């Protein structure tokens, strides 16, 4: 939608620990958030608002945006129907990992998992998780969140794909020995089977830096 991505003046990123640090100022944050959204959607109906670290969000704070997600054509003369709200959270990670592992134990491929297999479980799990930022939130209770999109854990083959992609991005020829070495340095879970990467691909860049120096 906005080709400049996070550099676009119409894409707004909120970090819970940075923008809403004090639990005793929730009411102030709610008012600031509502004013910020009103002003930006008035300027651009397709504004994008990204709330990261939802699992660190103070309880009840996010309910301040309920009027903008509800099924109103307009609020005070402004339509919010085209605005996009994205909530990122680690809450539900254990539920996702268990469900994916259950698929694996049944002999099913990761690629066979569909959104409908996980979405109901995630909705209930996040709603009942006090550390989700959406605990007993009206956004879920009133069915105002359109999709719960799970980020599935990455397998060994996916980590190798990340290494190759990073090498290409740096302008290197892909060296499979280096790909193998970086992937082998990652840690995997469960402890016995070692199927999924503990950190996804987050440390691939740093590990490739070390191999680059060598």
TrEMBL record:
Coiled coil regions in record: none
GO molecular function, one term: ATP binding
Gene Ontology BP annotations: nuclear membrane organization; protein localization to nucleus
GO cellular component terms listed in the entry, alphabetical order: endoplasmic reticulum lumen; nuclear envelope
Superkingdom of origin organism: Eukaryota
Annotated ranges, domain Torsin-1A C-terminal: 154-209
SUPFAM superfamilies linked: P-loop containing nucleoside triphosphate hydrolases (SSF52540)
Similarity comment: Belongs to the ClpA/ClpB family. Torsin subfamily.
Name used for this protein in its record: TOR1B protein
Organism name: Piaya cayana
Lineage: Eukaryota, Metazoa, Chordata, Craniata, Vertebrata
Gene this protein is translated from: Tor1b_1
């Amino acid at each position: 939608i906005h080709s400049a991505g996070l550099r676009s003046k119409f894409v707004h990123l909120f970090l819970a620990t940075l923008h809403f640090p004090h639990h005793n100022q929730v009411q102030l944050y709610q008012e600031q958030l509502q004013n910020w959204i009103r002003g930006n959607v008035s300027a651009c109906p397709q504004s994008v608002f990204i709330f990261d670290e939802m699992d660190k969000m103070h309880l009840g704070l996010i309910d301040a945006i309920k009027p903008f997600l509800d099924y109103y054509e307009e609020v005070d003369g402004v339509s919010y129907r085209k605005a996009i709200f994205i909530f990122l959270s680690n809450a539900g990670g254990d539920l996702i990992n268990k469900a994916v592992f259950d698929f694996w134990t049944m002999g099913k491929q990761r690629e066979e998992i569909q959104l409908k297999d996980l979405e109901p479980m995630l909705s209930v799990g996040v709603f009942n998780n006090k550390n989700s930022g959406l605990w007993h939130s009206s956004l879920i209770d009133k069915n105002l969140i359109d999709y719960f999109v799970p980020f599935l854990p990455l397998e060994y083959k996916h980590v190798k794909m990340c290494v190759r992609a990073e090498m290409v991005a740096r302008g290197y020829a892909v060296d499979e020995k280096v790909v193998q070495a970086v992937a082998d340095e990652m840690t995997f879970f469960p402890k016995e089977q070692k199927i999924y990467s503990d950190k996804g691909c987050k440390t691939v860049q740093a590990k490739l830096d070390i191999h680059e120096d060598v």
